[in-house]
């Protein structure tokens, strides 16, 4: 086995054993050279492998930061609520309602959704906290014509469960857009982003069985905490 692979496996084991806990720094390159008695090139190969495997993130001026691998897997094409993901993946989290208010469709929202300007909507912002840190910021707009009542208790739980079980809505599909964007002041204020300058933003237009769009959402995710997965099958065209 190559020496850099041996070093990678040793550091991997120490990270998994929490000898180097999440958000801590690995020893510097110079320290690792002394610890393992190898060249700088060998250490850099081992660190690059740790980076590729998602164990660390290198930051200029700081070193190698150990990432928290306790992450959610978000399906790209699926239409699954946050609570359903939380329960199936057994990651304890807390939902904090930041905003729940009645408002109206603006020109900007009209251009995204096609909803009539001035139509009443619910504006809901929720913070998702894992291990004491806010790592998701969810913003939802819901047509009051279709969702006439939305209480804090309903917003605190699974709104999809409320839609389907109490309002008898049949949610059919969503159009999603996933981008990596520079963080805004709102994101910095509401989320625990550490020194991240970018975040993943998922925008969704959610439709009922009769094709009516009734929800528009923007979900901001901290880069190191989540990964988006999908099963893909090759199809010749």
Automatic annotation (TrEMBL):
One short Pfam name that applies is UTRA
Q: Which InterPro entries match?
A: Bact_HTH_transcr_reg, Chorismate_lyase_/UTRA_dom_sf, TreR, Tscrpt_reg_HTH_GntR, UTRA, WH-like_DNA-bd_sf, WH_DNA-bd_sf
Outline the extent of the HTH gntR-type domain. Answer: 1-69
Q: Which UniProt keywords apply?
A: DNA-binding, Transcription, Transcription regulation
Gene Ontology process terms (BP)? negative regulation of DNA-templated transcription
| GO molecular function list | DNA binding; DNA-binding transcription factor activity
UniProt xrefs under NCBIfam families = trehalos_R_Bsub (TIGR02404)
Q: PANTHER family from the entry?
A: HTH-TYPE TRANSCRIPTIONAL REGULATOR TRER, MANNOSYL-D-GLYCERATE TRANSPORT/METABOLISM SYSTEM REPRESSOR MNGR-RELATED
Could you tell me what this protein is called?
Answer: Trehalose operon repressor
Species name: Enterococcus faecium (Streptococcus faecium)
């Amino acid at each position: 086995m190559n020496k850099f692979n041996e070093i990678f496996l040793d550091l991997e084991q120490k990270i998994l054993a929490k000898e180097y806990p999440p958000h801590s720094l690995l020893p510097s390159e110079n320290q690792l050279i002394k610890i393992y008695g190898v060249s700088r090139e060998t250490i850099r190969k081992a660190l690059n492998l740790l980076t590729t495997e998602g164990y660390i993130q290198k930051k200029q001026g700081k070193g190698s930061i150990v990432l928290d691998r306790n992450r959610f897997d978000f399906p790209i094409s699926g239409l699954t609520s946050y609570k359903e993901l939380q329960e199936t993946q057994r990651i304890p989290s807390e939902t904090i309602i930041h905003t729940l208010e009645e408002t109206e469709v603006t020109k900007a929202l009209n251009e995204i959704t096609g909803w009539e300007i001035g139509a009443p909507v619910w504006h809901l912002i929720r913070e998702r906290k894992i291990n004491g840190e806010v790592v998701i910021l969810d913003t939802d707009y819901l047509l009051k014509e279709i969702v006439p009542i939305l209480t804090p208790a309903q917003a605190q739980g699974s709104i999809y469960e409320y839609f389907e079980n109490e309002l008898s809505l049949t949610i059919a599909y969503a159009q999603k857009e996933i981008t990596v964007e520079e963080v805004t002041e709102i994101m910095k204020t509401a989320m625990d982003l550490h020194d991240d300058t970018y975040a993943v933003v998922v925008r969704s237009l959610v439709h009922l069985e009769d094709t009516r769009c009734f929800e528009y959402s923007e979900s901001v995710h901290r880069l190191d905490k989540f990964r988006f997965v999908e099963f893909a099958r090759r199809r010749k065209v």
